[in-house]
Structure formats: structure tokens, C-alpha cells
Amino acid sequence: MATKKKRVRLSKADAIARLDKMMPILYRNIVNAIRIEATMEAGNAIVQAMPNKTLPGADAFNTIMQSLAFDLAMHLARLYDVGNRNRPVNSRDVASIPLAVRLLRQKRCQKELKARARNWLPHDRTFANVFEEDCASALGRASAGYSNTFRGKFGRGGLRTLKAFRDTFMAHSLMKEVGTRPIYNHLFRLTDCSCDFVEDARLAVSGEASSLKERERILAKQAEQFWRMALLGERDEDDALPDWAVES
Questions:
Q1: How far is CA 235 from its chain centroid?
Q2: CA 220 → CA 100, 159, 180, 238, distances in Å?
Q3: Taking Cα atoms as reference points, which of 14, 22, 40, 21 lies closest to residue 219?
Q4: Rounded distance, CA 48 to CA 40, Å?
Q5: Is 210 within 8 Å of 141 (Cβ atoms)?
């Protein structure tokens, strides 16, 4: 007979503290993910637009893309990791979207976060009501966005494929065949969904508002400049490598 797991309760203060610790980690992961996605998309777009897709050293290009895809898959696996299911959920030491949304949907956490939002500008209470409404809206979008992750052709199936690929290939070398690998559409859709969630959750928890879409646009422009130089030999005169890239 299976032993029933002992329930671990979190106080409201502990639940909020967990969210405070999770957000910087989730944000760091999603920034890395969108950097990889932008690099992959820019490279693929240039290759697809080339009249002659025969490249010298094409195998090296494919290796780079495969490595980027594996790296992106690992970031996404971390973002959607539910932790060790044999441990009570409140004692899992994992920063992930599923564990964050579980806390964000609790009424006690929502009430505390909205109360904190009123104090986003402690020296000026003029916008306290507006900030509380902004927090409430962000909480609603984050919750709805997480639910939307599971919908569509690349939703739940993409997460299932990602987990199987992570367990059998990336995290371990198990002696069994991987049924399938995540395709670019799986990875890009999950990146977009996690991007939307983290942006809204970060606003609700810390009051930090930053457009990840705008950051992705900047990263995509930089990636396009690199690939046009690498694949087409084009280079802007004002392009320069950062100091760290040329140091011996």
C-alpha cells in the first residue's frame, strides 16, 4: 500500500517569499530562451530566403542550429519543471512556471500582491489604486496565459514531448529510444507562452514592467546582423565585436 504523502503547508509570508525568489530566476531563464529563439529564427529565415541554399560547411550550420535547439529545450524544460513528484509540492526547491502559477492563483497570495502593489511608489500614493488594478490585471493575464499554453497543436503535446526528450536524452542517457524530438514549432510556441507568462507574473509580483517582446526585437535585429555577415558576407561598417569577444 502506497504511503500517503505528508502535506506541507506554507504560510502566506512563505508563499510570497517563494514567488519573490522565483521571479528573477524565471526572468533570467526566459531572457536566455528568447535570445536563443531570436538567433535561430534569424538564421533560418536568411537560409530559407537564399536562392541557392547550398552552403559551404552546411553541416556546421546544422550543428549550430541543433545545439541551439537543445539549449532552448533545456531552458524550457527548466521553466516548465514541476519538480520531484515524490515530494510534497510545497517543499520542492524548484523555480518554475507551474509552481509559480499555483501560488499566483491562490486568493491569499493575490490579496497580498495587490496590497503590495499599492506601495510600488512608497513616496507617492497617488497611483495606489491604479497599481492595484494593474497587479490584478497582470495576475489574470498570467493565469489565462498559462492555461493557453496547453491548447492547440503544439501545446500539451509539445510539453509532453519536451519532458520525454529531457528525461531520456538531455538530463540522462537512458537505454531506450526517444519516441520523438521537439520540433522548432514546439519550442518557439512554448517560448512565446512562457515569455508572456513571466512578463505578467513579474509585474504582479515585483511591479517591474519590461517588454520582453521589445527585448526580443532587439535581439532578433542583432542576430540578423550576425547571420547576414556569417552567411552572406554582409557587414555594416559600424558593426564591432564587443571587447570581451576580441580579448586574448
A1: 31
A2: 28, 25, 28, 18
A3: 40
A4: 12
A5: no
Tens-level pLDDT at each residue, the chain (248 residues): 445 556 668 899 999 999 999 999 999 999 999 999 999 999 989 988 888 767 777 788 889 998 998 899 889 988 998 877 778 787 788 899 999 999 999 999 999 999 999 999 988 889 999 999 999 999 999 999 999 888 876 666 677 777 777 666 665 555 566 556 667 778 888 899 999 999 999 999 999 988 899 999 999 999 999 999 988 888 765 555 555 454 43
Other Cβ atoms less than 10 A from the Cβ of 104: the count is 25
Half-sphere exposure of 38 (CA within 13 A, CB side): 22
Separation of alpha carbons 181 and 221, rounded Å: 28
> Which position has the grid cell 553541416?
59
Q: List, in sequence order, every beta strand (DSSP E) within the chain.
A: none
Residues 67, 35: Cα–Cα separation, whole Å = 14
Half-sphere exposure of 131 (CA within 13 A, CB side): 21
Whether the model clears a pTM of 0.85, i.e. scores above it, the answer is no
Cell 529510444, residue? 177
| Distance from C-alpha of 197 to C-alpha of 27, rounded to nearest angstrom | 10
Amino acid at 12: K
Q: Which three cell numbers stand for residue 200?
A: 505578467
Residue 156 near residue 189, CB atoms below 8 Å? no
